[in-house]
Design brief:
Alkaline Phosphatase, subunit A; seven-stranded mixed beta sheet; two-stranded antiparallel sheet; 18 helices; elongated
């Protein structure tokens, strides 16, 4: 009688990649398919290496496969259970409660491994069951991701850029200035800093005014989320038509990334000889790697990779210092952009310089004078104070950068310093009613637009900024849009609620 074929063993590989597919499928709206490649490759190769090593030790492929699958289930469930039990961010082994938790968790792994080692029967049947179970779940998540990506492609096709802007009289345009667009992520308006954070920001704003900037006192962000705000600003229009094409129930931010990368402003400037210079951004939709000149890009963990690592025991086993080191590239990226902005003045004009700086947005890794090293990585222990410290740091760095830009400029120069939105200590991402719209949508807008009298609306929305620039320097005659602000939840970013009156309330009291 012919011997029955033993089942092909695939479950160690499937259990290694399953947690990554799970995380991606539950956060697909903020991620891109290319971000899956590296984690899947590392997990897949690691599973094969572990299986091979255990096979050599036990001289039994099926038992080695069972041990390998057990390890991957244990490895990727650690972070979830740690947060559930400890109710706190990952800590190192110096914390007594964490040490006890780790000891118990290691004990469970050893007990499970011991059982599989001594068990002599049923390995083939158990492997078949695990193949089927893991295969079904992996296939489900793969189909979920595939369906999401298909809908994303359809959304791209529906999402066409708006019509071309025609300059009414190109002959009227003078010398094309270098344009610096500096986005300070999460920087609050003066009245917000005063009333909520108890911080007087007038010295910094007075500095900008002395330098020739026009600081808009009641400035509004068009939208409460970075990708929405910048997509609207660079395309110089509100996003109602985008919402209609993508669907108000969608949570996919990829169409916004496409709008940012291929925006109307760049399409207008490039034919006039502009080169687009982009500094590396830590936020994927704003990381314009297709720019003519891309500066500061360094290999570092993406947010998705950091979240994936946080589900494992590595941050705890390696200690809090390892966790802090994950944020060291963040500090380096912020400092690099501030320090090298003025270097772009040596480029042949005209250039458009795009610098998205993820600060004073959390994580809170900067003191007033710079990164405090070593500094315990803090998770909202004193959010108001830590935010103010980062505002003070950003103020000092911005002053140095502005001084350097103006001192080194050998060509007409425009500088726009803007926040994409305000801070979020009173933001509820599930409810507009429980959100302080003034804090979240009160924005910093400061414009250095040389060339005569400049009059800007006191409640100017960031959507109008580049309409003003085009009218002033390129002979355009673009009407300004109503100055409005819109809130939307994280789950439904395209379901816009107008909150203009709440966003400017309080700013008038200054």
């Amino acid at each position: 009688m012919a011997e029955l074929k033993r089942p092909v063993i695939v479950h160690p590989f499937l259990f290694a990649i399953l947690p990554i597919l799970f995380l991606y499928s539950h956060n697909a709206g903020e991620l891109y398919l290319s971000q899956l490649a590296a984690p899947l490759l590392v997990a897949g190769l690691s599973s094969l290496l572990l299986w091979w090593a255990l096979s050599l030790i036990f001289r039994d492929r099926r038992r080695a496969a069972l041990l390998s699958s057990l390890f991957w289930v244990w490895f990727f469930s650690f972070g979830h259970l740690h947060r559930l039990v400890m109710r706190s961010p990952a800590a190192d082994l110096a914390a007594p409660k964490t040490a006890i938790f780790v000891a118990i968790y290691w004990t469970l792994l050893l007990i499970g491994a011991g059982f599989l080692i001594v068990q002599r029967r049923g390995a083939t049947g158990l492997s078949s069951m695990l193949n089927i179970a893991a295969g079904v779940v992996v296939a489900w998540h793969a189909l979920t991701i595939g369906g999401y990506e298909f809908k994303r492609v359809l959304a791209y096709q529906r999402l066409r850029q708006a019509g071309r802007i025609n300059l009414i009289d190109p002959a009227r345009a003078g010398v094309c200035p270098n344009i610096y667009y500096i986005i300070l992520d999460g920087y609050g308006r003066a009245d917000v800093l005063r009333d909520i954070y108890h911080y007087d920001n007038r010295p910094f704003l007075q500095y900008l005014t002395r330098k020739g900037f026009h600081v808009v006192p009641q400035a509004q962000a068009g939208y409460c989320q970075t990708a929405l705000s910048l997509a609207a600003g660079l395309n110089m229009e509100y996003l109602d038509r985008v919402a209609a094409r993508v669907g108000v129930s969608s949570n996919d931010l990829a169409p916004l990334a496409k709008m940012i990368e291929h925006n109307r402003l760049f399409k207008l400037l490039r034919p006039r000889g502009y080169r687009i210079v982009a500094f590396s951004s830590e936020y994927a939709p704003l990381d314009l790697r297709s720019a003519d000149i891309y500066l500061g890009g360094r290999s570092r963990l993406t947010e998705f990779q950091r979240v994936t690592l946080a589900t494992t025991p590595l941050p705890v086993l390696l200690g809090a210092g390892a966790l802090e080191s994950n944020y060291q590239p963040h500090a380096q990226a912020v400092l690099y952009t501030f320090e090298h902005l003025a270097d772009t003045t040596r480029l042949k004009p005209p250039v458009f310089v795009f610098a998205h700086i993820m600060c004073p947005h959390p994580p809170f890794v900067f003191g007033p004078d710079g990164p405090d090293t070593p500094r315990e990585l803090r998770f909202r222990k004193d959010e108001l104070r830590e935010y103010v410290e980062q505002v003070q740091f950003v103020n000092r760095q911005t002053q140095r950068a502005v001084d350097a830009l103006l001192a080194a400029a050998r060509w007409p120069t425009v500088i726009i310093i803007q926040s994409d939105h305000g801070p979020s200590s009173r933001t509820d991402w599930f409810s507009v009613e429980r959100t302080d719209a003034r804090e979240r949508l009160g924005a910093l807008v400061a414009c250095y637009l040389p060339g005569g009298d400049l009059r800007l609306d006191d409640d100017l929305s960031s959507v109008n900024l580049f309409r003003i620039v085009l009218n002033r320097y390129f002979g355009a005659n673009l009407p300004l849009l109503p100055n409005d602000s819109y809130y939307s939840t994280s789950g439904q970013p395209y379901r816009f609620v107008r909150v203009t009156d709440d966003a400017v309330a309080g700013a008038r009291k200054q």
